[in-house]
Amino acid sequence: MYLVRDLEENLNLEYARDLSERLFLIIRFEGGNDTWQTSSGIPPLEKIRFRKWINKSTNNTDYINKINYETVSNVMVGRYKGQGVVRVDTMKGRFIFTEPHDDWREIRFLLPWIIAVLGLIGLILAGTWLALRWIMKPLN
Prior knowledge:
single chain; alpha+beta; about 40% helix
């Protein structure tokens, strides 16, 4: 909630772009007369199924609202094609935070497994070749 409070105190696009670059987030603000976002890449909000954020470290589900009862009215989280989205409704407007979409994320996750399987197949083929070479040695 520090981020929301900080953005509310400095409600301008330049400051939000600086924060966005440092935190690797895309930030969008929708207020009464002002709407801006730090870069493109925020998924369509109507396609995201949001749910209320629950703090699992405590049993109290309204933990955020009790800390920032004067500013934050609602915190919702959701996902769209693996991209996390957080929507925070405040008295000044709505903030939407999302991580930049990365097309290579799935490949980077699977790459070590692919390399391991290919290495295992290579070891099996090399072992088979060496075994056949040893078995066929008397035929020379």
